[in-house]
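Chain X:
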Amino acid sequence: MIELIRVSRHFPRGRGIEDISLRVEKGDWVVLVGSAGAGKTTLLRMVYADDRPDSGEVVVGNYRLSSLRPKDLPGMRRQLGIVDADLSLVDDRNVYRNVTLVGEVRGWPRAKTKTAALRVLNRVGLYGHLDLQPRQLSHGERLRLAIARALVAEPEALIADEPLAMMDEATADGIVELLARIHHRGTSLLIATNHPERYNGYPVRRVRLERGRLVEGR
């Protein structure tokens, strides 16, 4: 469902990625491993078309990004739930309204929006925090909110950039267990991390980047 074919991206100052080929099939849980600057974020941005490669091809579902028209970009991204490193929460909307924003933007009926939002907030453990603002949440709870918003439209795949950054062990373990439940329900996962040991014991496929090149896994 997601494929990178000999993808390269170069930057004037700093390393990008070089000749990356990778497949993420339906039901996969891929953990993208590498130190800071290895190219993990650049690779993820290629997948959801936040940036474009200098060469190579990216395929998401039936979309080939090299020929993707601007009007088709929203349709492509609807197949993906995206949690970037900044989380990108809306600070002046409470927990519930951060999630319902997705349905509002897509023009869903109000009843569908409410049902979907409450269902996913219950799944991530935030049902009791509906009226809180993002600033009132812990870092782990803010991440759970970002995951809820990414999942509310039931995408085929969830992409997350360093979701365990700056977390204590107990909070990180809780997030990985949440990801495991999401994966068990059939969602493909593509997760970038500096902490691969957190995923030990889970059915993940590790892919390692070093200096912009794929050195382990496909």
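Chain Y:
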Amino acid sequence: MAHFLLRLFVKNADQTSDPKVRAAVGTLSGIVGILCNFFLFLGKVIIGTLSGSVSITADAMNNLSDAASSIVTLVGFKLAEQPADAEHPYGHARFEYLSGLVVSAMIVIIGFELAKTSVGKILSPVPVVFSAPLAAVLVLSIAVKLWLCLFNRTLGRKINSTTLLATSEDSRNDIITTAAVLLAAVIEAVSGLSIDGFVGLAVSLFILYSGAKLAKETISPLLGEAASPELQSRIVDYISAQPKVLGYHDLMVHDYGPGQRFATIHVEMDCKEDPMQCHELIDDMERECLKSHNIHLVIHYDPVVTDDPELTRLHILVDDLLSEMDARLKTHDFRMVPGGGHTNLIFDIAMPQDTKLTKQEIQDKLEEALCAREGKTYHTIITFDPLAFNQESCEHQ
């Protein structure tokens, strides 16, 4: 059904990096969500009022919040579709993340209000009138929510949207909570045991948990999370396959919303290569990366010395000494400046944030070990980079 609706309402649905296509998919999800959730809300609020069930009424309010969330999602995708302008040169795609944050905040508010109502029902219980229409509405709700869950999951995976995947997860949660409400109504009808208020409280707590979880997931890209391993691999696999490239490091990816990713990377080439040819190759790589992977890539050219045996030997030695301290410590941009009484070694170290070693300890231990091994005085001039920027760094052997 999801694929049928995509073909019917979304033009060029396979071009998922196109902001217009993403907006159309988000609009489709939003409209379907609004209609389904609003009709579920009407059915449940009528049955909940007639039966006196606070848990069913609570579940109805959850559907109303889901309808409002669908409106926010729809608006968010529309705003994210806007092109870049003078004030926002990186586009407006982060509106999609912001809409997800608003949705999660609404879920938390609804959950809090329903918790208060359920506590009141626990303190002052009122019998629930079980009926066939009540059971029918709840079973229908579960079926509709199951379809919405699968529908939004399909759309979310199609365009790689955390907002739509979160909406799918929210529908899955609704299936669980509605099933719990139905179970409470059946138990009370069969045994006379009034657990409606407790189930309503459990539903509200589940809603609160879901809202908090969704908030965490939507805040993360807004704060600036690390690029996924899959995205890093796409970039470095392409770079490493190019001629003349000896190595790469310092990969940084900036996410300005779906379809708006900017990246920088340092690429190592033999210093004896023609600079003009290297520049032309870099230009080609940047253009192809944008065309094939939709990533705005900026490449920094690092010329490296490949025919100095002493430099290569010291580079390997330094890497070995660092590995003895912490196997994750790696070097790049390694240079050597000989002097009269000492030799300067200049390089960068990719440093894990959770290492127990301080920068000064690493430098002191390294210089001490070098002097002990070589019988010479070495001064190290080190730039420490976060390991997160160098997860994929390598040098071709």
